[in-house]
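Raw record, unedited: Type II CAAX endopeptidase family protein
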Amino acid sequence: MQMTEVLLIGAIALLVVLNLLDKSKENVRTDKTSLARVYYETIALLWFPVVFLVIHLYFTATPLESIGISWNYHWQIMTGLGLLSLLIVYFIYDLKLLVNDQDKQQKLAEQMASFAWFMPKTKPQMLIFTLGLSVSAGICEELIFRGYILNALSQHLGVILSVILSSALFGLCHFYQGVFHVFRTFIIGIVFCLIYLGCETIIIPIILHIVLDVYGGISSYIVRDFVKETS
């Protein structure tokens, strides 16, 4: 194993451990830290292992295709791109409906109560969340958990077990958002893995990941006045 890969694995392990030990929820609720600072710290933490991934690829002359960075105009990618475009159109339409539907806002606020502490409540927070955190999460988490970990594990454990383990690690990295969100993220991770394997490119999952996070951030901002946080 190359030294650069050892450093990369260490950076990923540190990412998981720091998320498991994270006290952001308590600190935000007790006003010990601002939500914007939590966003910035999360963005920095996300890019940390990606830097080591880039270093590893460079010094080992490993092609970008090994982590899924590729693009060919075959039917799998074009189908994924088409479905992604339809999803974006639907999200835009749904957000327009949400703005004018208070009953829908109330229901959505109830659904997000357990992790509402992490969602943006002001315009500056929403900008950081959508343009900074969402984009960073989409790029970094897909490159690390699908692009690198899934591919690395698949060489030794097979695809099915690799999908489960990489998605479990992906879920654990969201422990600071609550136990329920860990399970939810684990399921989402499996879906992202299947999309990646089906489309044969990491680019589609990256865009989808960003779109989902941006949609969640804007939705939470719209319903912010209806949210009653729970422990």
